């Protein structure tokens, strides 16, 4: 199908509908041509149109074209990269487990201050085979902290994870605060983690991050602390929630006092005093376990200041 054989379109909505239709038909090149014509006729596309074309290229197995379309957003009127377009790229890279490109894209998102969404969080973690394996097996070597997770991926006794996969997990731990913030509710009455919408792999990592966050606010805990897991309405076997089973297992191994609520079988709950005792009993985190990939490259402020002053005065001499 060629656009020139079609009657001319008029109006931004007409072009937007054409782009969407061509993407649904799996015709990314034609959809991109319609997008370019839309711009040439003075209509300003939205990020949704660029995201749709990028996803279409991604599904067609053309990551280079997908990236090119995303990059062209700025040229078409300074459209800012949005969460939808970012997720489209993550979806493509995750599907083919291209961890090197996933890592580069996550870093770009962090640089552009594009927050990771729950969808992107799921996509990236589900694409990590070593991580998925340890969560699926729930063996005795299952790490019970974010620092322990990174260490285990690096030096698993059987088959250590590829370096790119390790770096992807580290980068996601460093840049996914937005996901935890949206999944966690904190009030005077309750501190709650909601695991609805997360895969078992993503829920496992999120629980580890949540424990770190609760531990950091241990002096201001509300009356109750809870984790909402669901009761398995969307599981293969109704009533058997894999996420609930995983949360129970992980928190149980940590010695957590959170237990299934008698009134809600999809909720783990404990009172403040018992949670405080539990948090106080947890081992002190190891030094140098900052999950941020750039942490090792950060220069202390004082040293950086003296270095810059030295450069300044040397230029005057």
From TrEMBL:
Sorted alphabetically, which InterPro entries does this protein's record hold? PPR_rpt, Smr_dom, Smr_dom_sf, TPR-like_helical_dom_sf
Q: Where are the PPR repeats?
A: 11-45
Q: Which PROSITE patterns match?
A: PPR, SMR
Query: Sorted alphabetically, which keywords does the UniProt record give?
Result: Repeat, Transit peptide
Matches recorded under Pfam families: PPR
Ranges for domain Smr come to 193-273
Family classification: Belongs to the PPR family. P subfamily.
Q: Per its UniProt record, what PANTHER family does this chain match?
A: OS02G0120000 PROTEIN (PTHR47447:SF15), OS03G0856100 PROTEIN (PTHR47447)
From the Swiss-Prot or TrEMBL record, give the protein name. Answer: Smr domain-containing protein
The protein's organism comes out as Zea mays (Maize)
Classification from the root reads: Eukaryota, Viridiplantae, Streptophyta, Embryophyta, Tracheophyta
